[in-house]
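ugh finaly. both done.
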Amino acid sequence: MHGSELKDGQHSTLEEDPRPKLWPRVLGSLAIVGVMVGMMIGRLTAPTPVELQQVDVLPGGLVVWFSAEPKLHGELVDGTLGLLFDARGKVQSGQLTFNGKSVNWRVRDTDGGLLLTLVAARALKGDWAGASQDGRWRLQVNLRE
């Protein structure tokens, strides 16, 4: 029968390996490098945000120029015309003349994007249409009473 005593320095359990375990460090380093490369690729492939470039006043309406086609939501609320664009741009305001009456317009920044509002003393109605022109997006807003 064999006992538990040592015979010639050999026994059934292995001794602890004194070398450091490098495999967890290698996996951690690969994970960090993978996250960093993924973030760089994400920044390179992210679409550029749509920019409001200018607002032109026409008789009876506005022409709004964008760098590309924005997402658009428009509503007529209590006689005012409101258009919400998924875009960035600077705050602007102005006035136009429609049927001899003045109409105030304003572009302001909101949580949902840029909001263009047109307000007059009388209730306004209007329609809008957009098209690509000269590498930019042109949105024409026409007013009606």
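ok and the 2nd:
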Amino acid sequence: METKSIRNVDISLIQHLPMIDFIGNDFAIFDDIKDMPLSPYPTRLNAACFCVCLKGWCRMHINLQKYELSEGMMGIILPDQIVQQGGRSDDFSGIFIAISKSFIDGVLPTMQQLFPLFFLIKERPCVHITPEEQQAFKDYHSFLWSRVKLKDNPFRKEITQGLLVSLFYEIYHIYQGHTTQERIPKTRKEDLFERFLRYISESYKENRSVSYYADKMFLTAKHLSTVVKDVSGKTAGEWIDSLVILEAKALLKSSELSVQEIADELHFANQSFFGKYFKHHTGMSPKEYRRQ
């Protein structure tokens, strides 16, 4: 049954390729993707990927939305996002960094003020950057690569994590300069929203009720909905529904599971209820979407 689900991939998938340096299954750095395996099917990445395109273009879907990364652009894919790779030009080149979820979790506690960056990236995973910003990313990439190569250094992992914290701040600065809508969320609300996203990402398949998550957070459903709407512009129910529909679409497009099996996977009472839910949010039945 595992082959029928959305494929999950991590850094270990590319560890056999030449010209890439690693820190275990936590970190990879490289500047050539000609040997990189491409999948035309939706795939969930268990890592964050950072790229600056130096030449040519590359197309992809991130959470089923189409994007094109071209010369002079930075592209970022966050962990657990669903990626479907499209075509790329023969002359496509860039510099790349891949970081596992656990490696990022090791530095997140020191980056509380960077939390709005992840909203900005989700809204705009591909941004144009200036030549100076491109050079800054090149400098970090070069220095990180030189540190990763020092395999005899017992603090190689810690040094890399420290440099990544600095790189995240640089990227936040870039996004602030290139994003027209700047948020200044209240710290308390931001923290509640972060916890809400964490809870729904863990339980959205089993629980689609706002009150369920409100109870877990010791809040009223009304207060949670107000906070989520203030911070993100979307209601708590819309966030839950968006995750469920995204998962359903990816399963319909990428797996051999029947509609009934997908309904079971997402813990709907029956296929009919799943079909009505899916059509309400997408305007078409699961079978129509699969045929599309």
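summary for the 2nd one i guess: The chain has two domains: 2-178, 187-291.
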